Amino acid sequence: MFRPLELFIGLRYTRAKRRNHFISFISLTSMLGIALGITALITVLSVMNGFQQELRGRILAMTAHATLNHWNGVIEDWRTVRDQAVRHPEIQGGAPFIRGEAMLNHASLVSGALVQGILPQEEQQVSDIGGKMIQGALDDLRPGRFGVILGKALANALAVRVGDKLTVITPQANVTPAGVLPRLKRFDVVGIFEAGMYEYDRGLALVHVADAGKLFQFPEGAVTGIRLKLRDLFQAPRLARELAQQLPDGYTARDWTQDHASFFRAVQIEKTAMFVILTLIVAVAAFNIVSALVMVVTDKQADIAILRTLGATPLSIMGIFIVQGITIGLIGTLLGLIGGVSLATHIDVVVPFIEQLFGVKFLAPDVYLISDLPAQVQWGDVSTIGLVAFGLATLATLYPAWRAARTQPAEALRYE
C-alpha cells in the first residue's frame, strides 16, 4: 500500500518541527502514554506470574503432582499399584500415605489437624517436605515410636517444642465397660517444619505410616492412597486420566490442578482482569494519536491540497498519515517493551531501592507469605502486549488518515 513517496513524506512529517508546538506535545504525550502503559502492563503481569510460580512451588512442595485412590478409601496392596504406576516413563516416583482428621491436645490447648502418615524414605521422592524442616528430620519418624512432626504455626498454637508430648484424639471410638470413648494416643514431637503456606503450617501433622495405620485402625500394610511425582507437572491432568484407565476398576486418579482448582482459577481470573484494565490505559494513550493526527491534518490542509494538485491520489494521502501514526505507535510500543522487560527483570533491585528511599515496606513479612516481589517475564505475554498496543495505535490512525484523504484541493486553497 505504501510507496516510497508516502513513506518519505510520512516520516518527514513525523520528524519535522511543526509550527504548532501543541501538536508536537500531543504526539509526544501519546507516544509516552503508550510506552508507560505497556511498561506497567508487562511489569504487573510479570509480577503476577512470579507470584503464581512462587505459590505453585510452595503448594507442590507439600502436595503430590497426582494421587491414586480407591473408591472404598483403602489400598491394601499399595506396593504393586505403586510399581505399576512408576513404570510409566513420565512418572518419577510414588509414595504411600494414610490421611485422617484428628484433634491434638497439649496441656489445656486443643487444635484440629490433618494427620498424614508417610514413609520418610519414599516421601522424599514425591515432595520437598524434608527441605522445609526447621527442627528435626523426616528420618526421626520411626515405626512404633509414635513420633509426630508439626507445622510451625500448629506447634505454636499448641505451645509445644521438640521433645514434648501431645495427645492425638481420633474420630474412631473404643467400646469399653465405661461406655464409648474416643481413641487417644500419646505422640512425641520429633520435628517442626515450615512450608511457607498457612494451610499446611497450621493444619498438618506428619507421622509414620505404620503408626498412622494403628491410629486410624487400617488393616496392616493398607494405605489411603499413593502420591506420585511427574517429570512434567503441567502434564498432570493428561497423565491422571491415563493412569485411571490403566489401573483396575475402582481406582481413581486426581492431579494437583483439581486439588487446588479454585485457587489457580482465581489467580488466572485476576491476571486476566488486570490485563484488560491495563490494556484500557494503553488504549487511551493510543487513541490520543487520533487527536494528534486530526490536528496535523488540519494544520497541513494546504500541503495536502498541493500534493493533490500534483497528482497524489486520496489513497496516497491516506498512506502518508497512516505512516505518521504508525511511526508514533511503533516508537511508543518499542519504548514500552524495552522499559517493561527491563523493569520486570530488575524488580528485585528497584523495589528494595524504593522501599529504602521512602522508608516503607510493600509486603510486610509478618503479614504476607511472600515478602518480596517475584517476577517472571513470559515472552508470550510480552508479544501479546506488543501486538495489542501496536494494533490499537494502528487502528487510531485510520480515521484521521481517511479524513485527510477526503480533503478537496479547491476548498483547502481558497483562502491561501
Can you lay out the helices and strands and say which pair or pack?
Blueprint: H1 4-15, H2 21-62, E1 66-70, H3 78-86, E2 91-106, E3 109-118, H4 120-123, E4 133-135, E5 147-151, H5 152-158, E6 165-176, E7 179-193, H6 198-203, E8 204-208, H7 209-215, E9 225-230, H8 236-246, E10 251-255, H9 256-259, H10 261-286, H11 288-299, H12 301-309, H13 314-345, H14 347-358, H15 379-405, H16 409-413
Helix pairs in contact: 1-13, 2-10, 2-11, 2-13, 2-15, 10-15, 11-13, 11-15, 13-15
Let me know the largest β-sheet: 6 strands, mixed, barrel
How much is the average pLDDT?
84
Helix content: 40-55%
SSE pattern = HHEHEEHEEHEEHEHEHEHHHHHHHH
**What is the count of helical runs?**
16
Strand order of the largest sheet: 2-3-8-5-7-6
Strand content: 15-25%
* Poorly predicted residue ranges: none
How far the N terminus sits from the C terminus, by CA atoms, comes to 31 Å
Helix-strand category = alpha+beta
How many strand elements? 10
Shape: elongated
| Number of domains as seen in the coordinates | 2
Radius of gyration from CA coordinates: 33 Å
